[in-house]
Amino acid sequence: MIETLAQFGNMLLYPAVALIAYFDTLIGVGFFVFGEIAFVTAGVRWAATGDIWIVILVLCAACSGDLTSFGLGRRYGARAASRCLKPLSRRRQWRRARRLLMRYGIGFVIVARLLGPVAWITPFLAGSLAMPARRFALATVPAVLIGAGQFVLLGYFGANAGPLLQRAYAFLSDHMGIFAMGFAIFCATGVIWKMQRGGRLVQLLCAVITAAAIVLGANLYYFFASGAHAATSLEGQPQTVGLCDLKTMDLRVYPGNTNMHLPQPINVLLISDVSPEVVMSGLGWQQNMTFSRDRIGLKTYVELLVKRTPPVSEMYYFGQPAQSAFQLPGSLTERVHIRWWPAGWLGDQQIYVGAISRDEEIAIKYYRAIPALLHDIEPEVDRVRDLLAAQIVGHSELSVLGLAPLQKPVHDGQESDYQTDGRLLVVGSSYRSLLPQYYNCLSLTQNGEV
Questions:
Q1: Helix H segments across 323-397?
Q2: Higher-confidence position of 237 and 332
Q3: Residues near 140 by Cβ (< 8 Å), separated by ≥ 6?
Q4: What φ, ψ does residue 267 adopt, rounded to 5°?
Q5: 238/262 Cα distance (integer angstroms)
Q6: Do 246 and 406 contact (CB within 8 A), yes or no?
Q7: What is the rounded distance in angstroms from the CA atom of residue 8 to the CA atom of residue 5?
Q8: pLDDT band for position 16 (50/70/90)?
Q9: Residue 404 pairs with which residues in a beta bridge?
Q10: Which of 185, 203, 186 lies closest to 194, judged by CA?
Q11: Are 241 and 208 in contact (CB under 8 A)?
């Protein structure tokens, strides 16, 4: 019985909202009918069921109501108006609508849908003033789409307000730093532009200097005073997996946790019973400090710059910062460096993943919550991966096991900060062999070819 009543109610919904939308602008009746109810209801229904036809129905009904009022105005004109508009307030609305319609024509018919009570009499008035029917019909379609459509969208988004608000809050929270910096730059440069005298060039120069000072100040505060790196991880959990599970994982690291943060590829895989710190030290690499693992003040940072071993900015592997970072001796702008993360176990040996790249230049990049002055990497990351492989070949305690195609290739021209063939350099201990099943699951051969 309840299901029957529910079905009957659904059947009545369509004619009910259509009639309300139709009578909304019908002269005389429209003063007592609130079409917004029908339009909002249609939007809610659309959001709940995906039924777009109820929206089309109410919009067509609204257009029909406008055309009917227009026809009545064309036929009965001022005589009917005098009977329907006896109250003083209605006559004032009539005179106002008539004056605007005579002045703006089609534009007024469209805008009238947004003017409350004026919308109720505009179609009838247009007919009484002998406005061409074709022109009115062309005007009433966008008028209904704008005037009624706003309430349809209100119903649609109102029905989804909870999830939408949650997504909006999450987006604002993730990017609050860049919004705050942008607002500060906008306000400060606006004040400078308004107060500074001496010509447009001087104003522009002062505005640019002010914006640069704000960006620099925000970077200094974020890295050295805010404690933003005190939390050792972003959202996510450490990934402890078996060796063959790496084939199904996202082997990329990110400077933040949104889709606006551009990743770098994992391109080295170490299987060893010694830590990457021991391995890299044996290869002659210098260990770098990191902002999450070390306490770095501005003085320490300057001292490290002088030594040409500045800290490495954080990249996150499933929300976790690097366990350690190393660099080859080189210049400040073109150093080769690698970050390491623990990834799992293979018996009594630990699995580590690494991201190796070469710094190319200083650039402004989106880092965690702010635009920051960071090194930009050389796009062809496979070159430095192969450089590390050449180093390991001559090492007595390490062995290159091969190149494992665990990622999708990224070619030149794709939207990315890098290009790669998608293969990871697999490194192991020279005195311990890898079982054949692991060569198979990683798709590599003992001579290093795939």
A1: 382-393
A2: 332
A3: 63, 66, 67, 70, 109, 123
A4: -135, 10
A5: 20
A6: yes
A7: 5
A8: confident
A9: 424
A10: 203
A11: no
Cα angle 432, 436, 442; round to 5: 100
* Distance (Å, whole) CA 370 – CA 184: 13
Residue 199, by phi and psi: left (phi above 0), alpha (psi -120 to 50) or beta? left
Measure the CA–CA gap between 418 and 34, rounded to whole angstroms: 58
pLDDT at residue 82 in the model: 60
Distance, CA of 435 to CA of 393 (rounded, Å): 20
Which amino acid does the sequence have at 168? A
Q: For the purposes of burial, counting CB atoms within 10 Å of the CB of 225, is it exposed (0-12), middle (13-18) or buried (19 or more)?
A: exposed
Read off the pTM. 0.62
Q: What percent of the chain has pLDDT over 90?
A: 23
Report the alpha-carbon distance of residue 450 to residue 124 in Å, rounded: 78
Q: Do residues 241 and 249 touch, judged by C-beta distance below 8 A? A: yes
Q: Comparing C-alpha atoms, which of 289, 277, 411 is closest to residue 354? A: 277
**Sequence letter at residue 446:** Q
Amino acid at the residue 151: F
pLDDT of residue 415: 64
Q: Nearest-5° angle of CA 446, CA 318, CA 337? A: 60
Q: How far is it, in rounded angstroms, from Cα 149 to Cα 33?
A: 17
Q: Which of 147-156, 266-275, 297-306 has the highest mean pLDDT?
A: 266-275
- Residue 272: is its pLDDT beyond 70? yes
Residue 338: exposed, middle, or buried by beta-carbon count in 10 A (0-12, 13-18, 19+)?
A: buried
pLDDT at 5 over 80: no
57-88 residue pLDDT tens: 999 998 888 888 888 888 877 666 566 555 55
Residues 6+ apart with CB under 8 A from 14: 54, 57
HSE-up of residue 160 (Cα within 13 Å, Cβ side)? 15
Give residue 337's identity as a one-letter amino acid code. Answer: H
Please, what is the average pLDDT of the chain?
Answer: 81
DSSP states of 237-286: ----B-GGGGGGS--EEBSSSSTTSPPEE--EEEEESS-HHHHHHHTTPE
Of 64, 67, 42, 39, the residue nearest 52 (C-alpha): 42
Nearest to 340 by CA among 329, 326, 328: 326
CA separation for the pair 139, 105 (Å, rounded) = 9
Question: What value does the mean pLDDT take over residues 6-26?
Answer: 73
